[in-house]
Amino acid sequence: MARILIVDDHANDRYLLRTVLEAAGHSVTESVNGREALALARADPPDLVVSDVLMPELDGFGLCHEWHKNPLLAKIPFVFYSANYVKPDEERFARAAGAALFLQKPLAPEALEDAFAKLVGAERTAPRTLPEGEFAARHQDAVNRKLLEQIETLKTTQRGVIDLVSRLVEARDPYTAGHERRVGALAAGIGVELGFDENRCEGLRFAGQVHDVGKVSLPAEILVKPGRLTNWEYELVKSHTTVGHDLLAHLDFPWPLADVVRHHHERIDGSGYPDGLAGEAIGIEARIVGVADVVESMVSHRPYRPALGIEAALAELERGAGTHYDALAVAACRRLFRERDFRLPD
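RE: above sequence
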């Protein structure tokens, strides 16, 4: 059986691969980046190295290039094992850098074992590798493409999580179905009107979609109550801001979603909740979502009153501009409806 070096910065991926290889009788050594792997291999050369692509310190392409510059290691088969879709140009670059194989995660144990068995022990000459200048140029291009792929994958996952959270809130309160989505659309529109870039506007849309996530903790009978809430019930409803914040605080988003959820009911004069923040102590995203929330709530039907209409909503914003609501956000919202013919989605 072979001595195999695994190089991957993800502990779960190393564990899964190690389990498969050890079950097949191989001896496994692990490394978390290319520099560490080179040091381990120089001290005790393995029979095969299996490496991820994107890693800190020295990534997989860089490791492969350095690996084949070392006469002690150059004849040892180098295999890439990557989670991203393997594009033909990436595989060609990997082979030009000296790799024997470029495999895509996950592979069935039998397929992995078959691929490795054909490499271990086979006669192999040191491959010709790219000159330094050509490698450097192609390396940067390949890594940039991989990073963009990972960013897009992460964004897709984040969008899925946010959509799920929004649907959970709507399922708890069917009388406000679509509220989160419409608040998000209006908040993003206000962001565009204020000159925010595309990423920041996307964050506003997502913040609107989850701003009431804390309501999942409230009794359904309070959410759909047709009459006036008691003082105790109102205090309970107010807790949705802190509950929602706590639900999102430990999730890694590139936008301040948890802060928006906590502070979208704060008011410029300090009269809001839960923290009594005032002025610019309230994040701009929370101020914008707060304005969008007021508008959507007033133009939609609620169990305790009929829809009041957009003119009533804009009049409320204008009365509270600079005291309850951010004046710039109010002005932008007013322009959207009165000058840009903005319409809330159905």
